[in-house]
Design a protein that fits this description.
By secondary structure, this protein is an alpha/beta fold. It has helices spanning about 30-40, 50-65, 75-85, 100-105, 110-115, 130-140, 170-180, 195-200, 205, 235-245, 255-265, 270-290, 315-325, and strands spanning about 5, 10-15, 20, 70-75, 95-100, 120, 150-155, 185-190, 215, 230, 305, 330. It has 13 helices and twelve strands. Helix 1 (about 30-40) crosses helix 11 and helix 3 (about 75-85) packs across helix 10 (about 235-245). The chain has a seven-stranded mixed β-sheet with strand order 4-10-9-8-7-5-6, sandwiched between helices. A three-stranded mixed β-sheet has the order 2-3-12. It has a two-stranded antiparallel sheet with strand order 1-11.
């Protein structure tokens, strides 16, 4: 039903023309300054923990998020999976997560088929929050042989399928307090946590205080070509490092990539506000011209979902094709609900 705009700063080149590519914020490319950092980065073997650039990025990120330690991983999907495997280090564990979350919909079911963790899904509210009452109701101990034991609750911030909604500190803290009472962890899929932080005007360390672990993606609107980080306490990161090895995520002289990630978090976070401004203008224009919008013309961050007006005779595929052919604009139409 809904199409999607991501506001970003890159264009894709075709043989005949240039396109304004708004399909995803993953299409950003390294700047010249970012690439120059990669060329001059000191290197070592990260599997041995000896790449100084990776270590610097991990230390910088842990400090920024006010957590004890951090770990570099090749992708956000691996970061989330390694995190859940760390939280669910014992067999017969389960994770509570949102029905519309990226973990549920877009990561190939990996927490069950690779992590051997049972997923229990909760319907989120319109802002992407899990009801605390639902979490409490779904929480299970292993005092019944029929049950998997709840080990972690997962949230997403900003929440992709809810239109980039930013979860605020008050909610995250309240979930964290409940999790402590239930003696389970809280993992935040923070692929776009910097977008949420900029939108809310709340530093990431303060915003994520109630979460035990956070995954952070450096290739979504940040300009880095690849790479994610996990932050948490030292024991969590120790187990996540072991999970990363089992998943094939150990890399050697990866400082060439980590250098670009370091450049991204030190130079490109504040620029996300420009993307939010453009996305807001697009959403407002769509709403004013009869397009259906789950947020009624208002968006928190850089994602705009919409559906065609009732009077439109085009399918979403035809609409996207006309935008491409007649206006040189590329939009995504694969995410629908």
């Amino acid at each position: 039903k809904f199409g999607k705009f991501h506001s970003s700063r890159c264009c894709a080149k075709n043989i005949l023309r240039h396109y304004t590519d708004m399909r995803s914020d993953t299409l950003t490319k390294p700047s010249t300054n970012m690439l120059s950092e990669a060329l001059s980065a000191p290197l070592g073997d990260d599997v041995f923990g000896e790449d100084p650039t990776v270590n610097k990025l991990q230390e910088r990120t842990a400090d920024m998020f006010q957590k004890e330690d951090a770990l570099w991983l090749p992708s956000g999907t691996m970061a989330n999976l390694a995190s859940i495997m760390s939280h669910c280090n014992n067999r017969a564990s389960e994770a509570i997560l949102g029905k519309e979350s990226h973990l549920t919909l877009w990561e190939a079911g990996n927490i069950s088929n690779l992590g051997h963790v049972h997923p229990r899904q909760v319907v989120e509210d319109e802002k992407g929050c899990l009801s605390l009452d639902d979490v409490r109701d779904l929480w299970r101990l292993d005092d019944d042989d029929h049950f998997a034991k709840t080990a972690v609750v997962c949230i997403e911030n900003s929440h992709n399928m809810m239109g980039g909604c930013a979860l605020n500190k008050k909610y995250i803290d309240s979930l964290g307090e409940l999790a402590k009472e239930l003696k389970v962890g809280v993992h935040m899929d923070g692929a776009r946590i910097f977008n949420a932080s900029v939108s809310l005007g709340t530093p990431v360390g303060y915003l994520c205080e109630g979460a035990d672990s956070v995954s952070i993606c450096l290739s979504k609107g940040m300009g880095a070509p690849m790479g994610s980080l996990l932050v948490g306490n030292k024991e969590f990161i120790r187990l996540a490092r072991r999970a990363r090895k089992r998943l094939g995520g150990g890399t050697r002289q990866v400082g060439v990539v980590a250098a670009m990630g370091l450049f991204a978090i030190e130079n490109n976070v504040e620029r996300l506000a420009d993307d939010h401004f453009r996305a807001s203008k697009i959403a407002k224009a769509l709403h004013e011209n009869g397009f259906h919008q789950p947020q009624y013309g208002k968006v928190d961050t850089n994602i705009v979902y919409f559906a065609l007006p009732d009077s439109c005779s085009l399918s979403k595929e035809e609409f996207a094709m006309r935008l491409k052919k007649e206006y040189g604009v590329l939009v995504g139409y694969g995410y629908s609900r």
